Every structure is written in C-alpha cells, then in structure tokens.
C-alpha cells in the first residue's frame, strides 16, 4: 500500500500531464480540473506516505526496485526515509496549491499546467530516488520546465519595463545590460536560471561519475554504495566539493545564489512557489542524500565550509531583501537568506540541528509558498510589484491582508507555526559548535521581521493610490483554498509536530552516527524527546 | 592477390539485403520512366516499402544471428554491420517520407530523387560492411556519389549549387587523401584487410597513411578540422538531403572508423586515443561555440552536429568495448532527435519558406505540435532527461570515466551547458516570442509520421533504453577481447611522450 502510494505520488502528475496533451486548449476548465485531480491524487498519496512512515523502524521505507539497465548498474529504485517523506509531502502540497493559485491563467493554459506538473513530478522524483542516476535524472528534468514557465508566463521587472523610449529599448537589448542589477527581462532570468542550474548539475554529475568509477561495485544504487564505497584522501575531497557545490548552487548558497532572486521575480506565482518552496530544497536534499550517505568522512571534515558560507547567505540575503523595492525580490532574497539556516543546521552535524534543518525545509516551503502566492495575487490585481507605488490595499483585500500577516509571522518563526519549531531546533542544536553563526542567525530573524513587516506595511497600509481602487480580494473558494491549505498545514504541524519530529529523527540519528563515527544506538525510544 | 568470386547460395544470403535493395531501386527508376504520369508521391511510398522490407530482412538476420564474411573478408556481415545498416535504413525511410512535400516544389527529376536517396543508402550499407581498405574506398565513393547530385538538386537555387560545388571539391579532395593513405598503408603492410594489419609493426609511413585515412573519414563525419564544408552545404542543400547527410553518412563512416581503429590499429591504441581526445575536444568546443552565433536553423543544426560528433569521438577515445557500445547507442539517440528536428525544419520551411530562426517566433501559437516536437528534439540533443540524448551522453561519459579520461569528461560536461544555451534560444523564439504572422500552420501526414517516429524514439530510448543498450552490447561482442592498457597506465604515458 505504501509502495503504491509512493508510486502514485510520483506518477500521478506525470500521467496528468500526459492526459492534458489530449485535451484541446479551448476547454480550459477541463484542463484545470484534470491538473487539479492529478495533483490531488499526488497530495493524498503523499499524505498517506508521510503518515504511514514508521519512525520506530526508521531507514528507507516503501521501497520499489526495478532493474533498468544491468549493463550500466542502474535500477529504478525509489523509497523514502524520514527526510524524503516530509519533502515529498511538501512538494505535493505546493503543487496542489499552485494549481489553484494559477486558476486564472488564460494564455496557453494547457501548456502551463503540463510544464507545472512535470516540474513538480520531477522534484518529487528527486526526493524519493535511491539511485544516483535517477536522482540526477529527475534533478535535471526539474530544471528545464522552469525555463519555459518563466519565459512564457513570467513577468519583467519594473526597471526593465520602464525603459520604453528609443534609447531605453536599445539599452535593454544590449549585452552589457545583463549586469544591470535588478532590472531584468524574464527571458534573461529564465536563461540565467537554466544555465546556472545546469552548470551546477554537471559538476554534481562529475562527482557522481567519480563515485561510480571508484566504488568497488559499478553501480549507481545509493543503498549499495553507502555500504561498499569508501572514499578517503584527495579523491574524497574532490568528489565532495563537486557534489556539494554542484547541488548547493540550486540551494542556493552564497555566492552561487545570484540566479535565484532574479528567477523568483520573473516567475509566475505558482512557479515561484514551487521554485522557492521545493526546488531550492533539492540542493540540500541531494547533498544529504549523496554526500552524507556516501561520503560521511569527507562530510565531517568539510562541512564547516557550509557553516562559513551560510553566514554570508543569511546576512547578505537579509540586507538585500530589506532594501529591495520589488515584492518578489524581497521574498526571493528572504528565501535565499533562509536557506542559510538550513545550511547552518546541516553543518553542525548534530541531530537536533539537522532535524531542525529538515523541518525548516518543510516549514519554509509552506511559508514562502504563501508569500509568493499572495504577492502573485497582488501583482495580478495591480500589475506591479513595486512596493513604493503600492499601499492601502487592506481596504480592498481584507482577507488577503490577514493571510499575509500570518504568512509573515510564519516566515519569521512565530510560535504556533512549524517554522518556530524548526528555527529553535537549528539554533539550539548548532549553538555548541557554531555560536557565532547562531548569533548571526538570531540577528537574521530580526532582519526577517524588519523586511517582511516593511513590505507588509508598504503593500497593505498607508494611502492607496486611486488607480488601484478597482482591485479586489480573493473572494471565491478557488482563490482562498490554497492559502488556507498552506496556512492550515503550517499551523497544524506547529501545534502537533510529534509525528513529524519522530519521522525525521528516526533517519537523522543513524545518519549522524555514521558521520560522527559513534557506534549506532541499539534501540531508540523516540517519543517525548522534543527539546 | 587473387580474388575468389565464386558465390554459393549461403553467400548470397549474406548479400540478400543489398541485392534486394538494388533490385528495388531499379524498379523505382523503371516505374518512374515507364509511367510518366504517376504521382511521385506513390514513388516515395514504393521506395519506403522497399527500404522497410530490407529493414525487416536485416532485423531477421540480427534475430537469427546470420553472420559471415565474403570476398576474402572485403565484405563482412557481423553485429556492427547489421546495426549500422539498420541505422542507415531507418534514416533513409524517415528521410524519404519527410521528402514527399519538399519534392513537390522541384521542377524536374522528382522520381530520380528517390532513386538517388536509395542509391546512397545502398552505398552506405556496403560501407557498414567494409572490412578492407579497398572496399572502404569503393563504398565510400559510391555513397558520396549520390550525395553530390542530391546536394545540388535545386538547380535554380544559387545556394544549392554553391553547396554542391563546395561539397564536391572537398569530397574529391578527401577521396584523394583516402586513396593516398591507402596506398601508403598498403606499401607498409602489404595487405588491405583490417584484421591482417593488426600485427604490422609501427612505422612513419603507416602513421601518415592512417592519419590521411582518418582525415578522409573525418571529412565524412564532419569532425573539426575537416568540417569546413558542413555549414554551407547543410544550408544550401535541399533540407531532406541535409537531414540525410546529417546522420546516415556519419553513421556509416563511424562503422569504418570503429573497425579500422579497433581491429587494424588495436596495438597502437595509446597513440590514437590521444588523436581522438584532441579531435573530440576541438569538435565539441568549436561546434558549440560557433553554433551560438547562428541565425539560420540549418546552420545551427550543422554546428550542433559537429559538436555531437565530438561527443561520439569521446567513445572512440575510450577505445574500449564499452566505448563502442556507447557510440552505437548514442548514434541511435542522435538519429531520432536529429532527424526529428530536421523533419520539423522541413515542415516549417514547406509552410513559410524560411529557415531563419527569427521566423520560428511564436511557433507554439501557430502550431503547438511542431513547437512541442522541436522542443523535445532540441532538448534531447542538449542531453536533458528523460530524453534519449541524456542516456546517450551518460553512456559515453561512463565509457570515458572508465578509462579515466578526465580532461575529456570535463570538457564534455561543460559543453553540455554551452550547447543548452543555443538550443534554448530556439525554444525561446518558439515559445516566448510572439509570432510575426499568427496564421496557424498544419503539417502533412507523411511528415507527421516522421515526427511521431522521432518523438517515439526519443522518449522510448530515454525512458526504457534497456533493449537498445542490450542490442548495442550484443552487436559489438567481437570487441570484447579488447583489453589494451588504459591511458592512465604509466607505461603508456611514457610511450606517448616518445619513450
């Protein structure tokens, strides 16, 4: 049953996109219903997987393994552990919410949903791959739909759009314009994102091929490799660096982050949600899956690199977000700042902080999903993302303003939301090893409050410009439901985190014992251990 | 040297596909001459029928394991030969179908067109079986002969004539090189058969001879620095001919290259590995970088083809059985993606009479089918999962890393990213830009069939490649005893440095 549910989570969106191919474009309602149905199947199945995961047993569960090519040592091998299960669930939530968020897309609806479903299915595939080949397969597969989604249904930045006179047009088509920070076309953003991520991916592929070549058994199977492959010395360092920076480019760690805010800003709302919500977590997840599992010794020795870089991510992202004038840039930079927390939690190699990091990925997916969804609604209504020109929207959008406050609170990490649990665990767990980084992280939370509340004030309070008098709130269930779904999940797991915590911890503890070379504990009573 | 030309019935069986195709192309020509009024479309279907019958014959050979050699090893039918013959025939069938609409625009010689395509295919089938330098020369010229005519087929189009002339002059030059190289090799070794050369001692004459032969074959496959004819010829030739030129002769020439280097020169592997490493790096990098600047889709595909051949040569540089398997599989993926892409180009140029990339603007709005197909083919060429090209590239890279060719691997991987840029530029035009002229485009049935075959191949080889990988592995069984030292072996390195 669990196996079937896992397969359904992966294949329902793929099947949905195949079915969509045969539905004519002139029936947009049918297109949306089919997309929503396939995403709904994936959501229910992933919920089942998440709930049915047995933390007492731990390890990889719901495993399916089919031979794919014996010649190359590749098997279609999927299953989830306590890290994969919540992330699969988060992807399915965001996909389902994203389908409703983009309900009003009129231009080429069918193509939009096809690419969105492929994107989400590929991310889900990464989170359940137990084979390096398929990990890379789905990873790279998730990058390409982004190009089309950003390019076709995305939007230009204000700086770019305002250059409408003859000279401006000439300037913005010139080669040097790509360096013009903050005023980019969507085509540029899409191309930058795709090339950046593909470049990161091929680095990681080089690392994967080295693992394949130097392991005693020529296989891509992670579960086999983690037992038989032992790398040390320079080789381990080289592989680790390739794998870490290859995958960290999507995470995105400073200084490899520059594609990310540009990409967020250009993307349509649902794509931003999936992009910031789950696509960025592919980086952390793949590092955990490949480096932590197969290269435990190198991870122990080299993970301080991440601890150093995450400081820059947190501070730099936070400050840029504070001064940014574009709603999506604020949220985009806040995402890349918050991803620094995950790296901090991962770097400490402590079970509390790593559990916190995994929960943070889930929590951030929901919080940033809400923010992007609402920024998207505001953009659809006002056709601008420029904060200074907006204001007072609370009069027309009371529901949205309320939801926005909750989303900001979640993003900051207010008690009652799952973000709080995650943040406090990262901070507590890393304190012993990286006190300086923890201080920075706490300051980062203050910074988060500052820029999010600044944006909230700028959007919803103050005086409303008369040209936005016609804007309206989310009024029907199609528009409100996705927001309520994400808010509900965030608060539910904030109040009842125990199953979630146990699931993650059951995987994190043995993994860290391997890395820290502690003898594995015999049995674990995992209830009642919340710090 | 004496030739024994007595043929028994079982010998004739080995030649059955070629004999059948020879008869069939004569039938096509006869029908064209006899029934002047016949619609040339029917001639195309007649030709495709013959090609498919030959294909079935070869698949049956492969299935039942019919193998053998004729004429003192000049003609050999083994796994590799059957594989490349099938490759050539699939591409021939697809090209013939894709030509139907294009040929309508010809003013003269519509029937002869199909005859010439099939004649070239016949030549390439013999190339795949060439196991001896003399048959290499004869079959190579035989197949190229048809192409000289086909490239210049648009008599009133200046570009086509220019393309034909360029192709002809450089082709003849390559033939000269080939003949001279063969004479040198024969002078040094006293034999023309590959397997008998394997024991020959190395000498300067032999090296120069083989480099000349390599140059002539490099001209066929379009490896840098023998690529200069490719862009102009591809642009000027009738598009179906370009499509044919972009895969079939490359495959046939690679069959000869694999045989020559794996069999005749097995003992000199460390030396020629270096040759292929350099040729591969230069081809990939040059092809990809120059492709970025192209404004014409046929030129873009021409340069991308140069880069793809660079990828294929990674497999030759590996010089192992795994390397040859990877080449075979890669060519299959390339066949479907590349011919599919050209089929879309043919479809678009039939309708809007243009091959400029700018005119692909908004193709997604004008014909969602053509745009989606082109998207799949280009992404497969770029090597994006879950499409065939990704598996092909991965296979090649696995072959390379087993020989620890790290430089080659890094260059190959970086080139994936470079190539992604120009493929995506086309995607951008099709999907993001608005059309200059929004009238919808429709595709004819034969062309649609070709595109569907391309899509099916691209997806099948990407999602379930196992049977095809197994086929490639089985086809190259004869190379399984190839255990020359790897490039990382210190003894080999010293010998390379002149020791």
Strand line-up in the sheet with most strands of chain A: 1-2
Instruction: Return residue spans of chain B where pLDDT drops below 50 for at least 5 consecutive residues.
Output: 484-499
Sequence of secondary-structure elements of chain B = HHHEEHHHHHHHHHHHHHHHHHHH
Task: Please tell me how large the radius of gyration of chain A is.
Answer: 22 Å
Protein traits:
heterodimer; A: 531 residues; mainly alpha; two-stranded antiparallel ribbon; 2 strands; 70% helix; 3% strand; B: 499 residues; 22 helices; disordered C terminus
Summarize the structure.
The complex is a heterodimer of chains A (531) and B (499). By secondary structure, chain A is mainly alpha-helical.
Explain what the structure shows.
Chain A has 531 residues and is mainly α. Chain A has 22 helices and 2 strands. Chain A has one domain. Chain A is 70% helix and 3% strand. Chain A has a two-stranded antiparallel ribbon with strand order 1-2. In chain A, helix 15 (304-323) runs antiparallel to helix 16. Chain B has a domain at 266-499. The radius of gyration of chain B is 22 Å and the shape is globular. The longest helix of chain B is centred in the middle third of the chain and has 32 residues, at 158-189. Classes of the chains: A mainly alpha (531), B mainly alpha (499). At the A-B interface, strand 1, helix 5 and helix 8 of A face helix 17, helix 18, helix 19 and helix 21 of B.
What are the SSEs and their pairings?
The complex is a heterodimer of chains A (531) and B (499).
Chain A: H1 2-21, H2 28-52, E1 61-69, E2 74-80, H3 84-101, H4 109-128, H5 132-153, H6 158-161, H7 166-172, H8 186-214, H9 222-228, H10 233-248, H11 259-266, H12 269-279, H13 281-294, H14 296-302, H15 304-323, H16 327-347, H17 351-382, H18 398-412, H19 418-431, H20 435-460, H21 477-495, H22 498-515
Antiparallel strand pairs in A: 1-2
Helix pairs in contact in A: 1-2, 1-4, 2-3, 2-4, 3-4, 3-12, 3-17, 3-21, 4-5, 4-12, 5-8, 8-10, 8-11, 9-13, 10-13, 10-14, 11-12, 11-16, 12-17, 15-16, 15-20, 16-17, 16-19, 16-20, 17-18, 17-19, 17-21, 17-22, 18-20, 18-21, 19-20, 19-21
Chain B: H1 9-14, H2 16-34, H3 40-64, E1 68-70, E2 75-77, H4 79-103, H5 110-129, H6 133-151, H7 158-189, H8 194-197, H9 204-221, H10 230-236, H11 239-245, H12 248-264, H13 269-292, H14 297-318, H15 321-352, H16 363-366, H17 368-382, H18 388-402, H19 406-431, H20 445-463, H21 466-475, H22 490-496
Antiparallel strand pairs in B: 1-2
Helix pairs in contact in B: 2-3, 2-5, 3-4, 3-5, 4-5, 4-11, 4-12, 4-15, 4-20, 5-6, 5-12, 6-7, 7-9, 7-10, 9-12, 10-11, 10-14, 11-15, 13-14, 13-19, 14-15, 14-18, 14-19, 15-17, 15-18, 15-20, 15-21, 17-19, 17-20, 18-20
């Amino acid at each position: 049953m669990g196996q079937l549910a896992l397969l359904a989570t992966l294949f329902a969106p793929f099947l949905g996109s195949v079915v969509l191919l045969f539905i004519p474009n002139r029936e947009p309602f049918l297109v949306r219903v089919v997309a929503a149905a396939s995403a709904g199947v994936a959501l229910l199945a992933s919920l089942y997987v998440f709930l049915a995961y047995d933390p007492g047993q731990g390890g990889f569960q719901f495993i399916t393994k089919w031979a794919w090519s014996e010649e190359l040592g590749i098997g279609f091998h999927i299953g989830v552990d306590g890290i994969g299960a919540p992330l699969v669930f988060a992807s399915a939530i965001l996909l389902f919410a994203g389908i409703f968020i983009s309900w009003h897309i009129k231009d080429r609806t069918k193509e939009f949903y096809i690419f969105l479903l492929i994107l989400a299915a590929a991310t889900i595939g990464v989170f359940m791959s137990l084979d390096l080949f398929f990990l890379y397969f789905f990873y790279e597969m998730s990058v390409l739909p982004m190009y089309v989604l950003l390019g076709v249904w995305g939007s230009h930045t204000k700086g770019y759009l305002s250059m409408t006179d003859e000279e401006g047009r000439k300037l913005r088509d010139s080669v040097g314009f790509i360096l013009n920070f903050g005023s980019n076309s969507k085509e540029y953003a899409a191309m930058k994102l795709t090339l950046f991520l593909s470049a990161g991916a091929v680095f990681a592929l080089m690392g994967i091929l080295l693992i394949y070549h130097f392991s005693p058994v020529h296989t891509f199977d992670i579960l086999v490799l983690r037992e038989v492959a032992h790398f040390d010395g320079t080789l381990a360092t080289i592989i680790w660096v390739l794998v870490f920076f290859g995958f960290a480019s999507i995470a995105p760690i400073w200084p490899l982050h520059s594609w990310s805010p540009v990409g967020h800003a250009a993307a349509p709302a649902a794509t931003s949600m999936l992009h910031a919500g789950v696509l960025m977590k592919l980086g952390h997840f793949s590092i955990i899956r490949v480096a932590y599992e197969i290269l435990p010794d190198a991870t122990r020795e080299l993970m301080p690199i991440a601890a150093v870089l995450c400081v820059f991510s947190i501070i730099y992202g936070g400050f840029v977000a504070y001064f940014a004038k574009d709603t999506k840039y604020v949220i985009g930079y806040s995402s890349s700042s918050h991803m620094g927390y995950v790296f901090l939690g991962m770097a400490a190699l402590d079970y509390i902080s790593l559990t916190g990091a995994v929960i943070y990925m889930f929590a951030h997916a929901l919080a940033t999903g809400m923010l992007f969804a609402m920024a998207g609604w505001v953009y659809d209504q006002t056709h601008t993302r420029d904060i200074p020109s907006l204001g007072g929207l609370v009069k027309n959008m009371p529901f949205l303003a309320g939801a926005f406050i909750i989303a900001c609170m979640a993003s900051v990490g207010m008690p009652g939301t799952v973000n709080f649990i995650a943040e406090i665990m990262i901070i507590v767990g890393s304190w012993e090893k990286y006190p300086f980084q923890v201080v920075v992280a706490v300051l980062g939370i203050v910074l988060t409050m500052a820029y999010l509340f600044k944006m909230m004030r700028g959007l919803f309070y103050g005086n409303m410009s008369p040209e936005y008098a016609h804007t309206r709130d989310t009024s029907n269930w199609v528009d409100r439901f996705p927001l309520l779904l994400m808010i509900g999940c965030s608060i539910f797991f904030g109040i009842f985190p125990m199953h979630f915590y146990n699931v993650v911890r059951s995987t994190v503890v043995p993994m860290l014992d391997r890395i820290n070379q502690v003898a594995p504990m015999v049995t674990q009573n995992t209830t009642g251990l919340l710090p | 040297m004496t030739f024994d030309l007595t043929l028994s019935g079982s010998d004739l069986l080995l030649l059955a596909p070629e004999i059948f195709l020879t008869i069939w192309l004569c039938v096509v020509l006869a029908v064209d001459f006899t029934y002047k009024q016949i619609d040339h479309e029917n001639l195309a279907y007649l030709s495709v029928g013959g090609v498919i019958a030959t294909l079935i014959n070869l698949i049956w050979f492969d299935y039942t394991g019919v193998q053998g050699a004729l004429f003192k090893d000049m003609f050999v039918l083994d796994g590799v030969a059957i594989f490349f013959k099938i490759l050539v025939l699939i591409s021939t069938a697809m090209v013939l179908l894709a030509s139907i609409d294009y040929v309508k625009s010809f003013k003269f010689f519509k029937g002869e067109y199909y005859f010439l395509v099939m004649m070239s295919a016949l030549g390439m089938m013999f190339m795949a079986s060439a196991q001896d330098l003399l048959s290499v020369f004869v079959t190579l010229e035989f197949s190229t002969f048809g192409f000289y005519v086909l490239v210049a087929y648009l008599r009133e189009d200046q570009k086509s004539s220019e393309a034909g002339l360029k192709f002809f002059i450089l082709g003849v030059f390559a033939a000269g090189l080939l003949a001279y190289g063969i004479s040198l090799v024969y002078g040094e070794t006293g034999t023309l058969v590959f397997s008998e050369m394997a024991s020959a001692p190395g000498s300067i004459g032999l090296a120069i001879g083989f480099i000349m032969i390599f140059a002539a074959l490099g001209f066929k496959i379009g490896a840098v620095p023998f690529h200069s004819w490719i862009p102009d010829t591809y642009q000027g030739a009738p598009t179906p001919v370009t499509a044919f030129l972009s895969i079939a002769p490359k495959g046939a020439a690679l069959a000869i290259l694999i045989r020559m280097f794996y069999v005749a020169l097995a003992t000199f592997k460390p030396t020629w590995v270096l040759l292929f490493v350099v040729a591969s790096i230069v081809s990939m990098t040059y092809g990809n970088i120059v492709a970025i600047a192209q404004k014409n889709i046929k030129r873009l595909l021409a340069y991308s083809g140069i880069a793809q051949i660079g990828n294929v040569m990674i497999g030759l540089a590996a010089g192992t059985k795994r390397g040859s398997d990877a080449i075979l599989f890669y060519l299959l993926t390339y066949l479907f993606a590349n011919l599919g892409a050209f089929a879309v180009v043919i479809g678009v140029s039939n309708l809007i009479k243009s091959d400029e990339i700018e005119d692909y603007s908004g193709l997604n709005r004008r014909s969602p089918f053509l745009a989606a197909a082109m998207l799949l083919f280009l992404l497969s060429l770029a090597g994006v999962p879950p499409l065939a090209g990704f598996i092909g590239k991965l296979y090649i890279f696995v072959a390379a890393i087993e020989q620890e060719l790290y430089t080659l691997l890094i260059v190959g991987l970086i080139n994936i990213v470079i190539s992604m840029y120009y493929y995506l530029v086309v995607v951008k035009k099709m999907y993001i830009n608005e059309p200059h002229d929004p009238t919808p485009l429709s595709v004819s049935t034969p062309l649609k069939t070709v595109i569907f075959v391309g899509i099916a191949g691209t997806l099948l080889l990407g999602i379930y490649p196992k049977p095809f990988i197994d086929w490639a592995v089985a086809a190259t069984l004869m190379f399984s005893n190839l255990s020359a030292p790897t490039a990382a072996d210190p003894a080999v390195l010293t010998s390379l440095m002149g020791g």
